Amino acid sequence: METVELNAEPRPRAGKGPTRQMRRQGKVPAVFYGPKRLAAMIVVDAKEFSEKVSALEGSHLIRLRSNAEEISNRVALVKETQYHPVTGAVLHADFYEVDMTEKLRLRVPLHFTGKAVGITLGGILQPVQRDVEVECLPGDIPEFITVDVTGLNIHDAIHVSQVQAPQGVRICYDVDATLVTVLPPTVEEVKVEEAAGEGAAAEGAVAEVAAKPETEKKGGAA
Question: Is the pLDDT of residue 184 over 90?
Fold first, then answer.
């Protein structure tokens, strides 16, 4: 996996006032922490973060570049990002330092490729899981895992046991868990609607007969 380089600097002051000022200056307040270090307050450039990190899918390794020795050249994952609910601007980010020699667990998105046979018959492709948890070394983190659905017919499904993970990656999921299936076409719904329409027509005919004079029902007056 390609490592993304991101400039970062220590953040000397905390509190709402300094934090707001940083954001007005185009900066994103952040925290850098890990299992073997105390949390450190840092700041990154909002534009650079959006261009290099926000647009990425899945988990990516971030190498911090800084004049501060305690964070320079450290490798991390973005564990959490907070966005403004209206503008979508990045408000805060958490960077988690990783050891390149130790395996870790994280979620990786699934990409469903191909056109299922069942779709040509009117079926509907229904993803059940959009991502899965995997275990691997940081350097082996896949951007996504490909699942080929071409051979799926109506009512067919692909389970975790049928997916080939990239080398060095183990899927930490129930092997019988369904990832994607092809649902039958909605013909039955159409039939139900038609039956309802026919029922309504029949009820209308009965009501019309009931409303006719008694003589008409018997074929005329005696």
Answer: yes
